[in-house]
């Protein structure tokens, strides 16, 4: 049985059971959309991406060593608080594209928006996230020149993730 690890506390937060596997990343996020071709067209107007592949009723958007899996046929109500975060090289360009598309946004400083099928996206700039991509993934994504903000660099250092 796994344990929750609260990384926000200033105390020892390592909850480890010897028989528990460690969470080490996310391989993909699956989204349900009403129309696969319409979703690919919309997402292509919002983001630059490569299509990893297609199968009947499915499409896979490449994000280096991760991907978005799109499944045709939304079977749930629109998201409210539930969301996922996408990291981009230019958050303000996404904001402009979302506005051009007339998509519903969540008020506030962050950039949260809903696609026509009710999926809620939170968009975060790569420079501000507290992780760094390995060189091979940076090359694949064409982001070798992107710099981190001072705040993100400090968070990475505090978490022992710096090179």
How many domains?
Answer: 1
- Global outline: globular
CATH class: Alpha Beta
Q: Per CATH, what is the topology? A: 2,3-Dihydroxybiphenyl 1,2-Dioxygenase, domain 1
Can you identify the CATH superfamily? 2,3-Dihydroxybiphenyl 1,2-Dioxygenase, domain 1
- Could you tell me the strand content as a percent range? 15-25%
The SSE order reads EHEEEEHEEHH
Helical fraction: 10-25%
CATH A-level architecture:
Roll
Rounded mean pLDDT score: 86
The number of E-state strands comes to: 7
Number of helices: 4
Computed over alpha carbons, the radius of gyration is 18 Å
Structural class: alpha/beta
Give the spatial strand order of the biggest sheet.
Answer: 1-4-3-2
Low-pLDDT segments, ≥5 res: none
Query: What about the largest sheet?
Result: 4 strands, mixed
Distance between the first and last residues' Cα: 32 Å
Using brief descriptors, characterize the structure shown.
2,3-Dihydroxybiphenyl 1,2-Dioxygenase, domain 1; 163 residues; alpha/beta; four-stranded mixed β-sheet; 23% helix
């Amino acid at each position: 049985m796994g344990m929750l690890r609260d990384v926000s506390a200033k105390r020892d937060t390592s909850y480890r059971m010897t028989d528990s596997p460690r969470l080490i990343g996310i391989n993909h996020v699956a989204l349900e959309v009403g129309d696969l071709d319409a979703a690919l067209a919309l997402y292509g107007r919002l983001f630059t991406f490569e299509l990893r592949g297609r199968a009947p009723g499915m499409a896979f958007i490449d994000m280096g060593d991760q991907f978005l899996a799109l499944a045709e046929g939304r079977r749930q109500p629109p998201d409210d608080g539930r969301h996922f975060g996408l990291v981009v090289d230019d958050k303000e360009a996404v904001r402009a594209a979302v506005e051009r598309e007339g998509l519903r946004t969540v008020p506030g400083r962050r950039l949260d928006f809903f696609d026509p099928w009710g999926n809620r996206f939170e968009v975060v700039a790569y420079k501000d996230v507290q992780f760094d991509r390995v060189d091979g993934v940076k090359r694949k994504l064409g982001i070798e020149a992107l710099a981190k903000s001072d705040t993100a660099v400090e968070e990475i250092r505090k978490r022992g993730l710096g090179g």
